[in-house]
Please model this.
Amino acid sequence: MRKSEIAILGIILLSLIVSIYFYPQMPEKIASHWNIQGQVDGYMSKFLGLFLMPIILIGFALLFVAIPRIDPLKANIEKFRRYYEGFIILLFLFLLSIHFQVILWNIGIKISPNVMFPIGLGLLFFYIGVLCENAKRNWFIGIRTPWTLSSEKVWEKTHKIGGKLFKIAGVIAFVGVFFQSYALFFIFVPV
Model:
């Protein structure tokens, strides 16, 4: 088992343990969605609210572990595997932070999503830029068009530019933390 797979498994187990621990303390309906101003505008049953994210993490884990094994250009994925695995771990940590934010909010510790999302998505977008700049041609990861998939040169140029744009989007999204009322604009406008 790869170190990244152990980390993924650890994150999944942590999400399940935290969900089980806090289950008795949660109201029957828990806040699960916030509008652009950071106000609650959606609720879920406590079971779904606590166990949906661990289920999503399990599904993503199965997908991300399968991709390098089924890609016809799997040798190319091995060339940037550490960046791919870094992305997976960062994505899982971001999703875990959302899970924690939902739990904390519902036990009375109000952490605004307008603080968490700009930071988390800013880091994620920036790292996607790093991943793009290092990705080799493959069928699952990166900017896949008929042109990038049929030409190594087009793939390289596209991902060099795409990587820079994702990094810029990440920095802009991160700045949203300083303008919480407009945080989501900083996230979605550059994307």
Remarks:
- The chain is about 70% helix and 5% strand.
